Amino acid sequence: SYELTQPLSVSVALGQTARITCGGNNIGSKNVHWYQQKPGQAPVLVIYRDSNRPSGIPERFSGSNSGNTATLTISRAQAGDEADYYCQVWDSSTWVFGGGTKLTVL
Amino acid sequence: QVQLQESGPGLVKPSQTLSLTCTVSGGSISSGSYYWSWIRQPAGKGLEWIGRIYTSGSTNYNPSLKSRVTISVDTSKNQFSLKLSSVTAADTAVYYCAREAWGGQGDYWGQGTLVTVSS
Predict the structure, then answer these.
(1) Which site from A29, A64, A65, B46 is most exposed, i.e. has the minimal number of CB atoms within 10 Å?
(2) What is the pLDDT of residues B100-117, one digit of tens each?
(3) Does the distance separating the beta carbons of B48 and A97 come in below 8 Å?
């Protein structure tokens, strides 16, 4: 089965840029989606199909995908961006999630 | 604006069947080319996809749960449902329903419902 690997945690200083990676075998050939989940809340889609933002998601959120790594980039990080982030792909007729990354804004 | 709402018992006994329903509002479950999924999340852990259904009735399931899962749809009620049989404490989790848009992403999610498996 396909596996996605994310760092357990990432820290970023307020106002700086955070990058969260999602590793998978030839992930560049797949559509990668990213979700933000705050405590006690449902996940929210922040990037779909590698680099597209749903309406209402700030331009500070961007995504890229190439080779064996997809990356979610959060520019000008704010305290409100502190959350868990999950990557997800569709593989072999199933959704596959990464293990999640806790983003801390210092 | 599409909204999804999970409903069902919050407590299920071991070995019994967990049953949840997701009610879709703000649009017809039959309109557009959408799949409808169930996802769960044990406390303090990550997300696990359970399965999905198309309004034609076509389904896909997580291989690790396939033997115990049934997802069905009732277009007349704008609902889809999850049944998970022979539950154990390991099935205790928050269960979410979600709409899957073209490309495989969950663009709308329910708020989630906690199901505890305990005698």
Answers:
(1) A29
(2) 998 899 999 999 999 999
(3) yes
Residue pLDDT, tens place only, B32-64? 889 999 999 999 999 999 999 998 899 999 999
Please state, rounded to an integer, the average pLDDT across all residues of chain A: 97
Handedness of CA A27, A28, A29, A30 (dihedral sign): positive
CB contact under 8 A, B62 and A99: no
The Cβ of residue B105 has, within 10 Å, a number of other Cβ atoms equal to: 24
Burial of A54 (0-12, 13-18, 19+ CB in 10 A): middle
Across the interface, of B49, B103, B111, the residue whose CB is closest to A94 is B49
CA distance A36 to chain B (A): 12
Pick from B62, B107, B112: CB nearest A45 = B107
Please write the tens of the pLDDT for every residue from B82-91: 999 999 999 9
**Whole-angstrom Cα distance, residue B14 to residue B91?**
9
Residue in A33, A41, A42 nearest the CB of B105: A33
